[in-house]
Automatic annotation (TrEMBL):
Its EC number is 3.4.23.36. InterPro entries: Peptidase_A8. One of its GO terms (cellular component) is plasma membrane. GO terms for biological process: proteolysis. It comes from the Bacteria. NCBIfam families: lspA (TIGR00077). It comes from Streptomyces swartbergensis. Coiled coil: none annotated. Residues 1-66 are annotated as: Disordered. This is Lipoprotein signal peptidase. It catalyses: Release of signal peptides from bacterial membrane prolipoproteins. Hydrolyzes -Xaa-Yaa-Zaa-|-(S,diacylglyceryl)Cys-, in which Xaa is hydrophobic (preferably Leu), and Yaa (Ala or Ser) and Zaa (Gly or Ala) have small, neutral side chains. Pathway: Protein modification; lipoprotein biosynthesis (signal peptide cleavage).
């Protein structure tokens, strides 16, 4: 009898096995949940990736602006050095070849090259204030150098470069030429008819100033922003 019950009871084993198979199915359900969580995880990962990308793009903006600002500063100093070199070389030639010699007519009486020592400001004004004009030129150079750190506009870089080169050219004369340090006379040689005699440094300063006025009227700031009234 026990043997018969054992034999009859054996079919329950597959059920038990079936129950055993159901348990893996039940175990699979958490697996599926884990899989779904796994699927959600990449979604969260992609979100974090997007956030990271956004953060990366946010970090890239200053680094992109940095090189742009450095290029503008390079343009400023390149223009300044070019204007300064032209002024310095022209004055050296004038002192060596033209000073104490008759003027050279370029366009008849309308334009001549004539060497003149000017102790005043640009175009011969204010000869009694040589030291003051020297200090003003030095202050202009310092202001331009400080402003260059926030410079992101190419036209402003050119304008400030012209101002800087011209100021350096005349300041060099003030410091190194007679009669003494900070009292030196500037070498002027461009003499239009019915106008004051000037030099290339004066021309660079005037051109830079005119360009700055035009940029201000257009609403363009040195940092590259444009504002309208």
């Amino acid at each position: 009898m026990a043997e018969a019950e054992r034999i009859i009871g054996t079919p329950d084993t597959p059920d038990a096995a079936g129950n055993g198979r159901e348990r893996p199915g039940e175990d699979a359900a958490p697996g599926e949940r884990a899989g779904s969580e796994g699927t959600r995880a990449p979604a969260g990962g992609s979100g974090s990736d997007e956030a990271a990308a956004a953060g990366a793009s946010g970090r890239d903006e200053p680094t992109a602006a940095g090189p742009r600002g450095k290029r503008r500063i390079a343009v400023l100093f390149a223009v300044a050095m070019f204007a300064y070199a032209l002024d310095l070389i022209s004055k050296m030639i004038v002192v060596a070849k033209l000073e104490h010699h008759p003027p050279i007519e370029i366009i008849g009486d309308w334009l001549k090259f004539e060497a003149i020592r000017n102790a005043g400001a640009a175009f011969g004004f204010g000869e009694a204030f040589t030291v003051i004009f020297t200090m003003i030129a030095a202050a202009v150079i310092v202001v331009i150098a400080r402003l260059a750190r926030k410079l992101y506009s190419l036209p402003w870089a050119i304008a400030l470069g012209l101002l800087l080169g011209g100021a350096l050219g005349n300041l060099t004369d003030r410091i190194f030429r007679a009669p003494g340090v900070f009292e030196g006379a500037v070498v002027d040689f461009i003499a239009p008819k019915h106008f004051a005699v000037f030099n290339l440094a004066d021309s660079a300063i005037v051109c830079g100033g005119i360009l700055i006025v035009l940029l201000s009227f257009k609403g363009l700031d040195p940092d590259g922003t444009v504002h309208k009234d």
